[in-house]
Amino acid sequence: MFRSFKKRFLFYLLMPKKKMVLGSVKRFGVRYGRTTKYRLAVIEKEQKKPQQCPYCRKPKAHRLSFGIYQCDKCNKKFTGPAYALTPIVVRSEKPAAVEVQETTEEEA
Domain spanning 50-84 has what CATH number? Predict the structure, then answer.
């Protein structure tokens, strides 16, 4: 298709890059929009990994159902937040605009 290295390299630079791997959220295909699927991917990725047990402090607890967890090491069953025992932070793709107020010498 391309004969020269320069054309191939320019073509490579102009191609869109993948920004995030959605993992299990690919099952929705083209439905529901990019932002919604991105948020769900972050939540699902967090809830499926082993959580830290509050009793034995080992990362062996896993989610059984909505807010119910069980530790594989100490075999305790306990309740907690719905999706993960630690808070989930979903970063927005666009940084929020921060307004900086200038202080004058009279106010200080």
Answer: 2.20.25.30
